[in-house]
Amino acid sequence: MKARLNALWLRWEALPGNLRGSVWLVGSTLILVIMASMIKHVGKHLPVVEILFIRQMMVMVVISPAIAKGFPSIFRTKRLKLHILRICLSTVAMTTGFTAVVYLPLAEVTAIGFARTLFTTILAVFILHEIVGWRRWTATIVGLIGVLIVLRPSPEGMNEYSLMALLSAFFVACIMVVLRLLSQTEKPTTIMAYQSVFLAIAFAPFAIWSWVTPTLEELGLLVVIGVLMSAGQWANIQAYKAGEASAIAPFEYGRLLFAILIGIWYFGEIPTEYTLIGATVIVGSTLYTAHRNAKRKTVTVKPHGGEAP
Fold it and tell me: What is the pLDDT of residue 88?
């Protein structure tokens, strides 16, 4: 059996890097959509902040060997303020994002979440002073129009949860900009250590304040959610390690397809025409933006996962 597994692994490693990266990324998106679906299910009975706290504790358990091995040097940094800013942004992004997941259809909240790429382009201009040509500006404006189509800003079509999803996408974009700044001087292990430990600390008081004792079934689901979070992050890292970002990034939009299928199958959520049309516009504009970024060799940060639904 061991020899057969080794042979399969060697055959896998012999495949082109972009192919392996694409498979890893599709697997990552599926895992993260399943995780979001489980949060949506459990979130009907438990506070979102409690779910996120327990999930973050599970992430800490997974990463604790690496933290213990590198302690205390793993926490040495000259950019503590940026780490603190990232934790604050992540707390808001995850709370608003997963609250939207609980109360909005999966396809809708997933489509709105893709707006983070558009917001990142805007923030990169004003904060990182990156140069953006008219083509990327046009794609960004078109993408934002797609967001408006999904949101339907009218008394009938928009609610506070739609705004939460949009706010989460904006804060995730802010996080990506902070990550670009941190990655210039910080080790990936230091960035991940600060995120895993201090994000759990940030959620703790809110979780304790609103604590609802979970049933054994809910506790089991929370453990699975934590495991899926770690697995999704790991698969995401493997994807961008194996393949070129410009080649495999489009496969991230498989998340929308998975969200639609799981939403229909498990939650009985039929996407509206507004969601489908708006999602198509958003995906098209962000794919074009990614293409222009790759063509102009814009410096980007590989995703670390866990920032958004």
Answer: 95
